[in-house]
Amino acid sequence: NAGVTQTPKFQVLKTGQSMTLQCAQDMNHEYMSWYRQDPGMGLRLIHYSVGAGITDQGEVPNGYNVSRSTTEDFPLRLLSAAPSQTSVYFCASSYSIRGNYAYEQYFGPGTRLTVT
Amino acid sequence: GQQLNQSPQSMFIQEGEDVSMNCTSSSIFNTWLWYKQDPGEGPVLLIALYKAGELTSNGRLTAQFGITRKDSFLNISASIPSDVGIYFCAGKPDGNYQLIWGAGTKLIIKP
User: Fold this and answer.
1) DSSP designation for A83
2) What would the mean pLDDT of A98-114 be, rounded to a whole number?
3) Is A64 at the interface with chain B, CB within 8 A?
4) Which tens digits make up the pLDDT trace of A9-26?
5) Residue B96 scores a pLDDT above 90
6) Which of A23, A36, A72, A105 has the CB geometry, 3.0–4.6 Å to A92, for a possible disulfide?
7) Mean pLDDT of all residues belonging to chain A
8) Checking DSSP bridges between strand A54-57 and strand A43-51, what pairing results, if any?
9) b/e map of A53-76 (b: 16 or more CB within 10 Å)?
10) Residue B74 above 60 pLDDT?
11) Under an 8 A CB cutoff, do B42 and A101 touch?
């Protein structure tokens, strides 16, 4: 198993550009999520999905879109990049335990995004 | 929103020393998780706790789910150079299925 994979590993964008961060998992996990990590702060949830066709907003969703057409893939789209979106982005996935999700999340290696 | 207070923010220790760190919350949690993040990598799960009072070990690491359900502790015994990194706690509050994350404890070993 490859686990959770993310591409690209590094990306530089100009303000106003759009792009898609890719995330895939091969563990048949129902739950997938996107976090951003900024210096001195914990992980902040952007969007999450509890299954194909189902997505919802997290703590900091503004400026980002997601879709979940398959169990395996959960891309994150930046609509119009801003310098405030400079961050490290992590995708994570999880199975459900006792009917609950978001336990024991498995993380990808991250995408380091700089917006100039 | 709900917050976790993780302390200390950073620690400088000598190789061989024991390490302790903790997380506290303002509300009751039903799950505590401890993760470690190496530079340039994603967090990796170390220990998961599901019951108040639970004490779980993973090699030299031991974590406890506090009796009040508002705190958790992680201890590392006899630290070694590969223990350096950032340790995160995360918890799941009652009635909420999203994790809340602490800001991390950065562990640095003095040469």
Assistant:
1) G
2) 83
3) no
4) 999 999 999 999 999 999
5) no
6) A105
7) 92
8) antiparallel
9) eebeebebbeebebbbeebbebbb
10) yes
11) no
